[in-house]
Design a protein that fits this description.
Layout: H1 14-28, E1 33-39, H2 45-52, E2 59-64, H3 76-88, H4 91-97, H5 128-142, E3 145-150, H6 157-168, E4 175-182, H7 191-199, E5 205-209, H8 215-226, H9 232-242, H10 246-253, H11 271-280, H12 284-296, E6 300-301, H13 302-309, H14 319-328, E7 332-335, E8 338-341, H15 344-352, H16 356-371, H17 379-388, H18 392-408, H19 412-425, H20 431-434, H21 437-453, H22 457-469, H23 477-495, H24 503-511, H25 519-534, H26 540-554, H27 557-571, H28 576-592, H29 596-613, H30 616-632, H31 639-653, H32 656-669, H33 673-690, H34 693-706, H35 715-728, H36 732-744, H37 752-755, H38 758-775, H39 778-793, H40 807-825, H41 830-844, H42 847-864, H43 869-885, H44 888-901, H45 917-920, H46 924-934, H47 939-946, H48 950-964, H49 969-976
Parallel strand pairs: 1-4, 1-5, 2-3, 3-4
Antiparallel strand pairs: 6-8, 7-8
Helix pairs in contact: 5-6, 6-7, 6-32, 8-9, 8-10, 9-10, 12-14, 12-15, 16-17, 17-18, 18-19, 19-21, 21-22, 21-23, 22-23, 23-24, 23-25, 24-25, 25-26, 25-27, 26-27, 27-28, 27-29, 28-29, 29-30, 29-31, 30-31, 31-32, 31-33, 32-33, 33-34, 33-35, 34-35, 35-36, 35-38, 36-38, 36-39, 38-39, 38-40, 40-41, ...
Length: about 1000
């Protein structure tokens, strides 16, 4: 795409300009890209983005992130970008693009409501990313579109989730996402670290970092600004004082003629002075107004500025001229009707230059004005303004309101910020506002719960410890029990997936000895049992049964739900039918009580039971529905474990498109710890089978950053995925060596989940043996076979005895294992073994495994002699499946085998209905035979597929040639495809 280059006055950045130019050209060609431009403040990140987006053929949408008081309004940069589009679109375009997106009215009030009430009531965090994605893709369908998100380091977590969803859905859109991001202000624990770690494993994501300009680039920049080639001494001085920062260079040379050999003495050397150099040249009113703007903390309308400034000697009729003056001097800019600084650093410098009294007075004025303008009021802003104005009670109150609003938006990270502020202010707030001791405990308890949902377990533990310090355990044992159980869970979450510290939960049980029928005691036993089950500790069944008995005596529906969930967890593979029934009741009871965390856990346990019982389709459908419900209800990170479970089943069922969509939403959430690792593992498996090995490796490595590779509940799945990944990377022998100890050195007897690894391990051993056999390495062949034999012979029971997935899946796994063992040992009955495996896979509904087995069967026949018609049919079926799934490595293997065996893989398609008397004269059976001629099938192959004799096929072919007036099979097929000359 020509013309996508920056203005010639834009100095330096040749490499970055070329990179972004390639990105934009890719997008025009239907290859979407996302790129983050890193660099220090003022280094030119936003300028680079603006220069590269000048091309008039692009639709460019800008959204800015706002840092204000340590918290952000959810979705602010997203709504900003959409508002930018609204300001450019005409009525017809709005109607087309926004069709069926009424739920966006909460972000874009200007498009109206859907008639169902307050727009805020329409917010649905599960739908919002999809709606934003839908709108942006519609815009990109019209013309290539660039979405620029400025100052990503200040993005709220909710907006990061939306961006993740967009990136995860990149396929063929004409869409580019460019984000600028400061390298500063990203301390330890900043949410952007994990976001970037996750995005770096996405195939269409990239990054670039801007370094300071060198002397030549600074000289070019000055020439572009002043219109004259600068003296080398001037350029050298500017470089030294600016440290190569383009923004500071611009500030330093503004007002010079270009003939100077040095900077005037008034040019500041320090960063703050340089930033203020232009500002000091403004009129007094403009300077005062920009200070007022800086206190606002975010882009602000002229109306709000006018009201706030009116109390500081600036008349309403002076606002617009003052803002225009500041805009002309490059201090501020106007985006979609809101004013903000051209460079946010200046806002910080101006704010820091205020005296404490000035700061308090201005924040107080903002409180007054915002409270009088409900349409522009946000609770989060008022909480910050009141805090900095010294209004402790108002800060406390508005923080709680902001927390409630964040909860409505399903934005737990923002809710946690507000609640933690309220907790910190408790001692300072007046009792009439904050309430009493019980209110404090409730606040601490709520905050800890939200912190856990927001993956802030480390913050939850001290909150619960503080709550416990307010409780007399002797006088209030039940309350203490509740807090101890919560802290036990928080401590485990903060160290997961390590072994649990059960001291708190055991103390909770001890405290409730005198309350044998209390709901709190039942929950404590349930927590103990769940921890024991998860880590393979003894007595889990005993404690789960005790939890159920106590819960029923208590009469608490919530306690019964929690206890039944614990019992379901214990029984999921031992007594799956009982587990299934208990989990379903537990989920229903939990939902009726509003206990979304217990409902989510119950759904996880229900999946385990369904996976054991089968069929897989039931497990996939039920669990996917539970995932959607859990996320919609605002459940915590464990909701994404449901996505992992459902995705695993969808992969095996061959429903890869559905799996991709499911994983896309889960990856966008960037869940941490065990759920995040599960999602990454499923994404890795789908990627490796689709042929995206590098992406698969990125997902796999990220999973092992979130959990240890020996975490027992996920160890079998880690092993399965690791084997397939390493084999795809051409390291089958290494995968055998890696996986062998994971199957033979276990802390406990292998379970049904471990059995599911055996076919994959056997496949890796067979691949290693075949590769070694091809190289003539006898010892390596023997080593691979020995490794397989040692695992199978050392298995403490018959593999698949637990029949995980039902008898059909059991039969499939047994057949696959037998076939891979035969391939490893190079037995003579491989074709029969693989044919049985293919049949078993078909019965079990495992399309991927069936296609692999069909390919292996044809391969085995090819090595032993001419390929039979049946084997050719299996190869075509396997190829059709591989193409439909997008299983590129399998497709390539099948096509390679077909070339060697001279098998035509062309699909059999119906002869098109055309107005041709020659084709119209054919009977139904003759038209059917003709479709096989078009596909290049032989008479014997046609006979096999149509269940007729070769002689009957020959008669039909003769009739076709006679009726169509053709002389050969090829000519008849060409006629059917309308390819004959003159036709």
């Amino acid at each position: 795409m020509g013309g996508l280059r920056a203005d010639h006055r834009f100095a330096g950045r040749a490499v970055e300009q070329e990179l972004l130019g390639d990105v934009l050209r890719d997008a025009v060609g239907g290859i979407p890209r996302a790129i983050v431009i890193h660099g220090e403040a003022g280094i030119g990140k936003s300028r680079l983005a603006r220069e590269m987006c000048r091309d008039p053929r692009l639709t460019v949408l800008w959204g800015s992130c706002v840092h204000f008081g340590g918290a952000s309004v959810p979705f602010a940069p997203i709504s900003g970008a959409l508002q930018d589009w609204l300001s450019q679109a005409d009525a017809d375009e709005r109607e087309r693009i926004l069709a069926a997106t009424d739920r966006l009215t909460a972000l874009l009030p200007s498009i109206g409501t859907n008639g169902s009430g307050d727009a805020a009531d329409g917010i649905d965090s599960t739908r919002l990313p999809m709606l934003v994605d839908l709108v942006l893709n519609r815009i990109a369908d019209q013309r290539p579109t660039v979405v620029v998100i400025d100052d990503l380091q200040w993005a709220d977590v909710a907006s990061l989730d939306v961006l993740s969803y967009l990136i995860a859905g990149f396929r063929v859109q004409r869409l580019v996402l460019i984000a600028t991001c400061r390298t500063e202000e990203r301390g330890e624990g900043h949410p952007l670290h994990s976001w970037l770690a996750d995005m770096r494993r996405m195939p269409y994501f990239g990054e670039t970092s801007l370094q300071p300009l060198d002397l030549g680039a600074v000289s070019n920049q000055i020439e572009g600004l002043l219109g004259h080639t600068p003296d080398i001494e001037l350029a050298t001085e500017v470089l030294a004082r600016s440290d190569g920062n383009p923004y500071l260079v611009e500030l330093m040379v503004r007002g010079l003629s270009g003939a100077e050999r040095s900077l005037p003495p008034t040019v500041p050397a320090a960063l703050g002075e340089a930033l203020l150099a232009t500002w000091h040249g403004l009129s007094e009113r403009a300077r005062l107004l920009t200070r007022v703007l800086a206190v606002g903390g975010r882009p602000t309308s002229s109306a709000v500025l006018s009201q706030v400034a009116s109390g500081h000697g600036i008349d309403a009729n002076q606002i617009t001229p003052s803002l225009s003056e500041a805009q002309d001097r490059g201090v501020v800019r106007n985006d979609s009707g809101s004013w903000w600084f051209r460079h946010p650093l200046l806002a910080e410098v101006l704010y820091d230059g205020l005296s404490p009294d000035q700061s308090i007075e201005l924040h107080s004025d903002y409180v007054r004005v915002l409270e009088s303008r409900p349409a522009e009021l946000t609770a989060a802003d008022l909480a910050v303004h009141n805090e900095r104005a010294g209004n402790i009670d108002a800060t406390f109150r508005w923080s709680l309101v902001a927390a409630d609003q964040a909860a409505q938006l399903r934005a737990p990270s923002e809710e946690a910020i507000q609640l933690r502020r309220a907790c910190a202010l408790w001692e300072s707030a007046s009792p009439a506002i904050r309430g009493g001791r019980d209110d404090r405990i409730r606040l601490l308890r709520r905050t800890s719960t939200i912190c856990l949902r927001a993956s802030l377990a480390d913050a939850a533990v001290p909150l619960l410890t503080e709550a416990l310090s307010l409780v007399d355990k002797t006088r209030e044992p039940l309350l203490a029990c509740d807090l101890l159980v919560a802290r036990s869970d928080a401590r485990w979450s903060s160290t997961a997936p390590g072994m649990p510290d059960l001291a708190d939960v055991r103390e909770a049980i001890e405290l409730t000895t005198d309350f044998p029928a209390s709901a709190e005691r039942a929950v404590a036993f349930a927590e103990l049992s769940e921890s024991e089950t998860l880590h393979g500790l003894p007595d889990d069944v005993l404690h789960a049964e005790e939890a159920v008995r106590i819960a029923h005596r208590s009469g608490s529906a919530q306690a019964i739900g929690r206890a039944l969930g614990a019992l379901a967890a214990v029984s999921d593979s031992r007594a799956p039918l009982e587990s299934l029934a208990g989990a379903e009741v537990a989920e229903q009871l939990a939902r009726s009580c509003g206990d979304i965390d217990t409902a989510t856990n119950a759904a996880i346990f229900r999946f385990n039971a369904l996976h054991t019982i089968g069929p897989r389709s039931d497990a996939a459908e039920v669990t996917r529905a539970s995932y959607v419900e859990a996320v919609s209800a605002g459940a915590g990170v464990w909701a994404y474990f449901l996505a992992f479970q459902a995705a695993g089943e969808l992969i095996e069922l061959g429903r890869w498109d559905e799996c991709h969509d499911l994983l896309r939403s889960a990856l966008a959430a960037r869940a941490a710890d065990i759920p995040g690792a599960g999602v990454r593992l499923a994404a890795s498996l789908l990627a490796v089978r689709s042929g995206r090995t590098e992406e698969a490796r990125q997902h796999f490595d990220r999973a092992l950053e979130l959990i240890s590779d020996d975490f027992n509940p996920l160890r079998p799945y880690i092993t399965r995925v690791g084997i397939e990944l390493m084999t795809a990377e051409g390291k089958a022998a290494d995968s055998v060596a890696w996986a062998r100890p994971r199957l033979t050195v276990l802390d406990q007897a292998p379970e049904g989940w471990d059995d599911e690894v055996l076919p994959g391990f056997a496949q890796a051993a067979a691949d290693a043996a075949c590769a070694a056999r091809d190289r003539g390495e006898v010892a390596a062949v023997a080593a691979a076979a020995d490794a397989l034999d040692s695992v199978i012979d050392g298995w403490p029971r018959a593999p698949f005895a637990d029949a995980m997935g039902g008898v059909d899946v059991q039969a499939m796994n047994e057949a696959l294992l037998a076939a891979e063992i035969g391939r490893c040992r190079n037995t003579l009955d491989q074709a029969d073994l693989w044919r049985r495996a293919a049949d078993a896979c078909g019965v079990a509904g495992s399309r991927w495994d069936q296609a692999v087995a069909q390919w292996r069967c044809a391969e085995a026949e090819l090595t032993s002699g001419p390929t039979s018609a049946q084997a050719r049919g299996l190869l075509r079926q396997a190829h059709e499946c591989a193409v439909e799934l997008g299983a590129e490595p399998l497709r390539r293997e099948i096509e390679s085998l077909a070339r060697r065996a001279k098998v035509d893989l062309s699909p059999v398609e119906d002869v098109p209905s055309v107005d041709d008397s020659r084709l119209a004269a054919l009977t139904g059976r003759e038209r059917e035979v003709l479709t096989f001629l078009v596909a290049g099938r032989s008479n014997s192959e046609i006979a096999k597929d149509l269940f007729i004799s070769d002689k009957t096929v020959s008669v039909h072919v003769s009739n076709i040639l006679r009726k169509t007036g053709t002389t050969t099979r090829v000519a008849a097929a060409a006629l059917a495809e309308r390819r004959l000359p003159g036709q």
